[in-house]
Design brief:
The chain has 140 residues and is an all-alpha fold. The protein is built from 5 helices and no strands.
């Protein structure tokens, strides 16, 4: 281990007050990344799904619509779920023309696909910038 290199790295990762600076060296946790605890909790919830359905059935059988409604409002998506044959422009247009989706849903789907493409493009740009940075530093 080279102490000089480690010292240089430590100093360049901080500003004049000693705080960590933002940059390519340590981007931190990716947006939307889930911790081990959250992943474990989601796994447990998935395993409870059959039991939850049994509870809803029992509530409905007893005439307890309030409990069933409360649970379903928290489990089901707020908006309608739409399945398309593909994710291309033609697929969206075909679904719209066929009346499978509304114009608002078509707009939302198109916007979502566009946003995902932009994120993908940003990831590619970030990788290129990191590669160029390493090249300029003589690390490659």
């Amino acid at each position: 281990m080279n102490d000089e290199t480690d010292t240089d790295r430590i100093l360049t990762d901080r500003d004049n007050k000693g705080r960590f600076t933002s940059g390519l060296g340590n981007p931190g946790r990716p947006v939307g990344a889930k911790s081990k605890i959250i992943k474990g909790a989601l796994s447990e919830l998935r395993q409870m799904t059959p039991d939850a359905i049994d509870v809803v059935r029992a509530a409905i059988d007893k005439g307890d619509v309030k409990t069933a409604t409360w649970l379903l409002e928290r489990v089901l998506p707020a908006q309608r779920v739409v399945e398309l044959d593909g994710a291309g422009v033609e697929d969206i247009v075909n679904a719209l023309v066929a009346g499978d989706i509304s114009p608002t849903e078509a707009k939302t789907i198109a916007h979502s696909i566009s946003h995902l493409k932009n994120v993908s493009d940003l990831d590619e740009l970030r990788a290129e910038v990191e590669s160029l940075t390493r090249l300029l530093r003589g690390e490659e």
